[in-house]
Amino acid sequence: MKKASRLYDALVIFLGQSQQWADVRYLYVLAWMVVGLIGEGSVNLTRWIMSVQSRAKLAQSTQRRFQRWLYNPRINVQRLYSPLIQGVLAQWQEEVLYLSLDTTTLWNQYCIIRVSVVHRGRAVPVGWRVINHHSSSVAFHHYRDLLRRISRLMPERVKVVLLAARGFVDTQLMNYARQQLNWHYRIRVKSNFWLWQPGKGWTQVSHFHLGWGKALLLQNLRVCKTDPMTGVYLALGRECTKGERWYILSSEAVTLQTFREYGMRFDIEENFLDDKSNGFELERSMIRCAPALSRLCLVLAIATVYLTLQRKFPFDKKLRPML
Predict the structure, then answer these.
(1) Which of 41, 68, 299, 317 has the least C-beta neighbours within 10 A?
(2) Helical pair 290-310 and 266-275, crossing angle rounded to 10 deg
(3) 21-52 pLDDT tens trace
(4) Where do the domains of the chain lie?
């Protein structure tokens, strides 16, 4: 319990950087929730009690306190988290920040839209939104405001590159990233993606012949037959082992480095695995409320940020148990 107490004290200091607390007691409850999450390695409010030091005589009292916190409408997730992650991003002093955009679903009822920054092989949440949505495919209007809020957290004079999977091929997103946010992007496209070539007209990327282990770099293209865009670039490649084809759309001239940049996107999939089946077991939570799930994501995000700063992760066998 001494280790739990020390971790709690450190978290109170860390969380206290935000000046947006409507009631400081909310901060203390959140700190114990993060302690419980790290100590037990699971989203289980009952098991968290084992790591908590409280004056409550009944364990159910502590559990009810956690539940009230998760369902409390006065707790604004982004208002509390934004100053913390903004300070972390400024502290890293990176010249280029790679942001990975992705989604995951819970029980085919809720969809978590998340943007994470890729840092030293880890995807650290920057912002998220939980919506009632049965599919992981979401329209641009569902995450436009999320991107706008996140853009305000980026350090000055830092280049931002957005990484996204095939489900986010949308001219609205690409135009918004370049024209409104001044971000660049690397987005994987499907084999039926259209591009225009002088003298050849419109053709799909699947028509290009690629030998195993070969790449083709196309510069300054016109793409998207139904909603044409100009001044974009495309890197086409085929793996030399499995033969899988990769088509990466970019806002900048493409090189072989483009494939490596896009590869960093997969860190957010590991991040979701850490939250779900491979780590904190988010899907085992009994919460069926989008705002409450968003607050639970705040607990997960703070634990991820804190452990990243400490370079410790509860899923690494050599570090368990944490407390």
Answers:
(1) 317
(2) 110
(3) 778 889 999 999 999 998 888 888 888 887 77
(4) 2-79+293-319, 181-263
